[in-house]
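Recall that a protein's primary structure is simply its ordered list of amino acids. Everything else, from secondary elements to tertiary packing, is in principle encoded there. The following example makes that idea concrete.
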Amino acid sequence: MRTLNVGLIGGGFMGKAHSLAYAAMPMFFWPAPAMPVRKVIAEATPELAADAAARFGFESATTDWRRVVDDPAIDVVDIATPNHLHAEIAIAAAAAGKHIICEKPLARTGDEARSMYDAVRGADLVHMVAFNYRRTPAVALARQYIEEGAIGRILNFRGTYLQDWSADPDSPLSWRFQKEIAGSGALGDIATHVVDLARYLVGDISAVNSVLSTFIPDRPVQSGGADSLGTTRGGGPRAAVDVDDEVMTLLRFTNGAVGSLEATRNAYGRNNYITFEIHGTEGSIFFNYERRDELQVCFASDGGDRRGFRTVYTGPAHPYGGGLWPIPALGIGYGETKIIEAYDFFSAIAAGTSVSPNFADGYQIALVDDAIVESAAKGLWVDVPLLADLDRERA
């Protein structure tokens, strides 16, 4: 069986999730499309690098990500760093001919995302953006129903991503609150997941009308390099927050559907509340990630005396079910979505095909984000450029 050597850059929360996926993917999907070999991991200091290698099962460690990219033994470069490092690393990895998986959002701005897209365009390599929530079996099942025509022509989409980890004004100033590093706040950090789900299930977004809000203007300066994600309270000096805490936007889709999206990290009582509700001419679908084994469906063909949402518990009969657990509702976790993501990524490398979402998708989502920022500043509807049109103009 083919082996692929992985170089992981970043040993934080996402480094842990990706490492778990590489270790477990062959256990779930056997025979594996290829065997990931955890070859080298890069972190900011020798101590962090050595600790990450020992913890996540990598053969070696380094403090220089360029050593990962330049190593001829490395087949896959995995970018699990803060956002401001994505572009430089990805462009260098593409020039070195490496397959690339990059954490979301692809970039801080549309221009930055375009440079990454241009670096991989036409290259003989597989590139992927890690929007893992679309790998939840219930979400893939929703897409299956839509493609089958089970809910008819889509009329509207309603999506949310609500969290509360930054609702406390004394939670530390993570890099996620700093525009220079993150690019944006709730918009890039979590709303992009909903944009990806909207595109995956409904289609391209053609226009937005948006509001961006910042509720907490400053936070305690974080001590230490680890991203606390609001799990601690800080004291002492405070510094400015220069990104959004919340985004709300209306959506128009190229196929005529309409929708809305709300994302915030300041919603007390909401942990990882990703939802979508889609209404069509023949039925409706509802999903809540906090109950991720379940998909709620209602079909217009149901008799009037029994019409209402029913619950489908995902299992072996559903997307990815054959590789997961033997009975429905046994429990799908965040880790499984990353394992499925790794399976699809390595399958594409082994087969020499593309995978989605890729850097083209990441660029298109960045264009949506840019339009949301512009719309919020102007208080107007703003059209979203479509990548296919931009490519034709550049041809």
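Residues 95 and 125 are 10 Å apart (CA to CA). The longest strand covers residues 154-162.
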